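Input.
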Amino acid sequence: MHILFDEAGKLMTGRLMSEAESSLQVELDSGKRVKVKLANTLLRFEKPAPALLMPAATALAASMELELAYEFAPEDEFGFADLAADYFSDPPGVEQQVAALICLQGAPHYFRRAGKGRYKKAPAEIVAQALAAIEKKKQIQAQIDAWAAELVAGTCPEPVRQQLYKILFKPDKNAPEYKAVVEAARSSHLNPLALLEKAGAITSAYQFHWQRFLFDQFPKGTGFPALQAPAITDELPVAPVQAFSIDDSHTTEIDDALSLQGLGSGTVTLGIHIAAPGLAIQPQDAVDAVARQRLSTVYMPGHKITMLPDAVVQRYTLEAGRDCPAVSLYVSFDEATLEQKDSRTALERVPIAHNLRHDQLDSVITEAWLTGEAPLDTASGEIAALQPQLAFIFRLAKHLKAQREVVRGKPETFTRPDYTFKLQGVTGDEPDGSEAVIIGTRSRGAPLDLMVAEAMILANSTWGQWLAACGVPGIYRSQASLAPGVKVRMGTKVAPHAGIGVKAYAWSTSPLRRYVDLVNQWQIIACARHGTTAALAAPFKPKDANLFAIISGFDAAYTAYNGFQNGMERFWTLKHLQQTGTTELTATLIKDNLVRADTLPLVLPVLGAEGLPRGAHVRVRLGAIDEIALDVSGTVIERLDGAVEALDESAEAEDEELAAPLALAIDVNEPEAGAADPASAS
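Output.
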């Protein structure tokens, strides 16, 4: 005796092996033996054999007209044999009964299951809705097929072009545009980027990366609403100093400046002067709303998106020739021993005498020039007049750095240069990707760079500790240790920063460029105005939910902005390779198959590095460059002589990120949305 039975909604056939009181043992067509409950048995028959029955019944079911079957079916609950009797003949044969069962199971929009082998007609209005939905689905699939065919043929349908960045990076995987790209990529055996480029959806690699970033971070564009910079109404005293800033030539948001008093007196006072938009901009006003939405200035070669409108920036920037409102930190030192004596904070107007540009002066203001080993007349008269102040600040900076290194437990090493990108031929407000790029280097730890860096660390550390002493919350950056994998965290509680070697570190020195610094400046201003009662007057109170929201938003935005900057620097580095015809370069093996170019900001995977130690120097032949995927690889062609380089393990994760090609959210290998898992049906 053969049996047709239903297990988990799936029809199967098999040969009866044994029968108990409440169950059967059946050998399936596949040869597998299973135990089946009697309640799951739908039909017993002698012949035909299952191997003959199922193909014939399936073909007969396919020939059944669903509309006619719906018309013939009883109005009340019925069994599949009842439908077979009404539709075919009474009594129906086994083949006809199985065909009716297959038909009923395959038409849930016409017939609802009411039990094992039992069904009930769906209401007419439900059937109409279901048929309309099926027809709509057919039309959508036809549209998907048509779009996919166009893409494969090398033409991009306009709806796909309009959804380009959404499809690739934030897809709705049920959208027909997404499905068309996936279908076309599968049938053409091209990756989605190559497919879309071939179809003309991507015509400029530079614009692709730029528009992708705007889609992700600035969907409403980069323009500012009409804003007026609020005036600073405080009556501020004028500081008795002549301060100078140190930035590169492209900097318009001049946040910080330095001054020095008391040379030759035995006690020298270093002034660190920070632009004070926090004296005018207030939390939740119109300008603050814009700054809080953007959270930071975005940097990229040849262009930037500022956190604040230029008119607002120019109102508060520390421009030479003006007495600029500032939050000033004055720190006194013993001139001979450089021992720190005391510090104070002042709200004041600071005369800015000079805006020094380090990219123009690094070759002049050298360590030899500062120590008197090189003649002063290599610099202009006004710069030469600053030599005594710059020399002392440089001496102090080296001392402060040495003190931090004691706390760190090991010296800071600047083995990698900072790379600079200069674009030639920019004709509009922003690059278009066709410009010539010149990649230069700026050595970390150059005298001017060291002076500014140590002064800012001193200010951020001193103010961070002062906020804590006043009981005023701030936004801190901390790192528990220098152990591999221990990352820098942001929070509202003061904690040491092991990587820098300080007890506290609160970003406060770039309020025109980073929102976190503006928030901390508001808190510092409250401390300067109110002293021990500052906690009552500060805009943000302890455990303020707003502070935690700012930290979360800033972390996400800052990570995205840095990722974009890294990506654009990689784009221009690949452009540089193309423009200079570079096909080989020397590099250092940093991990497994990753190398870092010796003279360019480029990390890439290579073949042929097996067995080489980390730090080994090699010559690499470059492969094809993909500007859209930001991808390039190479092959090691020679091991170079020389000592193995000691590598900084803390930079390993950063190196891996820099080597990663563009990440897409589209996946042509995943099953279609809503597709059933075949394994779940049995």
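Confidence is low (pLDDT under 50) at residues 1-9, 673-682.
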